[in-house]
Structure formats: C-alpha cells, structure tokens
C-alpha cells in the first residue's frame, strides 16, 4: 500500500472528510446511520465507525474487541474498479456487484457480508457511504 493510494491512511482521511461534509447524508435522513461496517480490500480490513451518518474513525486491522454489523469484501482489483470515476458494469454499485458474487458465483466483484437485516435497514446510507469512496478516490470527481 502506498501513502496516497486506495486505502492508505491519507486516502481514508480524505474519505472521512468527504462523508462528513456530504449534505446527502443529512438531507435524506442518512444522519441516522450509526452501524459500523468493515471494508476488506484484498488482505487489508478497515472498520468504518459511523455516528449519526458521519465517520467517527477508520480503524485498520480491527480486532475481536471492535464491533460491526456488516461489511463488504473484495479483492484489490474489484475495489480499484469500484472507485474508478466511471466504473465498469456490475462494479458500479454494491447491489449489482454483490449479485454477481453471491448469486452468479462470479469472481472479481464485491460481496456484502454480515447481518442481512441490518444491511437492508441501512442500505441507502451504506450505499451512499460506499459511493463516496469513489469521490474520495477521484479527488472530488463524480
């Protein structure tokens, strides 16, 4: 992992600022989003701690003492596609990507894991938080 690339400390700090400044997280009621989730990028796992639709902290390599309700996993290549300014089909949003992995058993896509009820109760803010990764990765674009 380099210092400014996908999932670097600086990248996560930029992501945190973008989510915390995002009006949609407030305007659409996403400010009620308090469920922590993890992001697994290849062999690296990060816990995204949410509080009122804002990222409180991103914890690299969470332990058993950390808590989360659900997560999203994928190899580095799938994440690199997901965060492109214009991602390829089926890696452009989490439901399409998950479908390709979970239902069609295809490789190279992202997969949601954890408490399905909590995922779908929080789908819109969770999806928005993931989509903002694209904004962070492209220096505010998209």
Describe this structure as you would to a colleague.
The protein is built from six helices and five strands; from the N terminus they run ααββββααβαα. The protein is globular. The protein is of the alpha+beta class. The chain has helices at residues 9-21, 24-27, 76-82, 94-102, 116-121, 123-137; strands at 37-41, 44-51, 54-60, 70-74, 111-114. Helix 1 (9-21) crosses helix 6. The protein has a five-stranded mixed sheet. The mean pLDDT is 92. 38% of the residues lie in helices and 20% in strands.
Q: TL;DR?
A:
The protein is of the alpha+beta class and 142 residues long. It has helices spanning 9-21, 24-27, 76-82, 94-102, 116-121, 123-137, and strands spanning 37-41, 44-51, 54-60, 70-74, 111-114.
Question: What attributes characterize this protein structure?
Answer:
alpha+beta; 5-stranded mixed β-sheet; 38% helix; 20% strand
Main sheet strand line-up: 3-2-1-4-5
Oligomer: single chain
Q: What is the average of the pLDDT values?
A: 92
Helix content: 25-40%
Layout of helices and strands, plus pairs?
Elements lengths: L8 H13 L2 H4 L9 E5 L2 E8 L2 E7 L9 E5 L1 H7 L11 H9 L8 E4 L1 H6 L1 H15 L5
Parallel strand pairs: 1-4
Antiparallel strand pairs: 1-2, 2-3, 4-5
Helix pairs in contact: 1-6
């Amino acid at each position: 992992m380099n210092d400014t690339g996908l999932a670097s400390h600086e990248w996560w700090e930029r992501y945190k600022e973008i989510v915390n400044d995002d009006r949609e997280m407030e305007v659409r009621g996403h400010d009620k989003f308090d469920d922590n989730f993890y992001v697994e990028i290849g062999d690296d796992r990060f816990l995204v701690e949410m509080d009122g639709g804002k990222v409180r902290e991103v914890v690299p390599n969470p332990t058993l003492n950390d808590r989360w309700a659900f997560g999203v996993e994928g190899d580095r290549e799938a994440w690199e596609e997901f965060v492109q300014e214009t991602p390829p089909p089926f890696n452009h949003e989490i439901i399409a990507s998950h479908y390709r992995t979970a239902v069609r058993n295809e490789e190279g896509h992202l997969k949601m894991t954890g408490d399905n009820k909590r995922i779908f109760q929080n789908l819109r803010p969770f999806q928005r938080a993931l989509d903002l990764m694209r904004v962070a990765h492209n220096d505010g674009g998209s």
